């Protein structure tokens, strides 16, 4: 029988991961419309990852004989002032998700739910990577500034991201 507090918090996290999926799809659509197909590709791969994250929580709840409950997903915004603004928001969003994962870990520890703690370790490490990768891109875009050549090169580089 799954701990009810953990079940409820994990269901909320499914919604947060699906919103992340939606947010990155919205960023991809915006970048695509700006002719930045490489950056749009990077965002689509990121969105796919978020869907996988949501599924991990779904599978865990099922494995623990809990009940999955889907809630409405908030609409993301559809426009960003620049690629830098989009990636900055992605970095801030990842920091927010890390905070949520840490709070889930706090709850799992308080509830002495050892399987949940073990499960969440993967996400703690994953969030370190998620923050690092978005921050690295923010740093490069800041370096590039208004240079069209620089943006072109960044678009090319980000277009090479492989599916994880
Ligand atoms: Fe699922 Fe980007 O955190």
End-to-end C-alpha gap:
33 Å
What's the β-strand tally?
0
Largest sheet: none
Shape: elongated
Task: Identify every distinct bound molecule in the structure, by name, code or SMILES.
Answer: MU-OXO-diiron
Overall structural domain count: 1
Structural class: mainly alpha
At the fourth level of CATH, the homologous superfamily is Ferritin, core subunit, four-helix bundle
- Indicate the CATH topology: Ferritin
Specify Rg, calculated over alpha carbons: 17 Å
How would you explain this protein's 3D organization?
The longest helix is centred in the last third of the chain and has 31 residues. Helix 1 packs antiparallel against helix 2, helix 1 packs antiparallel against helix 3 and helix 3 runs antiparallel to helix 4. 31% of the residues are buried. The model has no long low-confidence stretch (mean pLDDT 97). With 164 residues, the chain is mostly helical. 77% of the residues lie in helices and 0% in strands. MU-OXO-diiron binds next to helix 1, helix 2 and helix 3.
């Amino acid at each position: 029988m799954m701990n009810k507090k953990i079940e409820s918090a994990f269901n909320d996290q499914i919604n947060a991961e699906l919103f992340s999926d939606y947010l990155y799809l919205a960023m991809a659509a915006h970048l695509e419309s700006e002719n930045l197909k490489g950056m749009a590709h990077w965002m689509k791969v990121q969105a796919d990852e978020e869907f996988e994250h949501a599924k991990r929580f779904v599978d865990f709840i099922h494995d623990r004989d809990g009940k999955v409950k889907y809630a409405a997903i908030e609409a993301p915004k559809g426009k960003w002032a620049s690629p830098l603004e989009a990636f900055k928001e992605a970095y801030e969003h990842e920091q927010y998700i890390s905070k949520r994962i840490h709070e889930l870990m706090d709850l799992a520890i308080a509830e002495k739910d050892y399987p949940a703690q073990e499960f969440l370790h993967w996400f703690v490490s994953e969030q370190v990577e998620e923050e690092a990768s978005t921050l690295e891109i923010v740093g490069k875009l800041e370096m590039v500034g208004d240079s069209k050549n620089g943006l072109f090169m960044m678009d090319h580089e980000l277009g090479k991201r492989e599916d994880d």
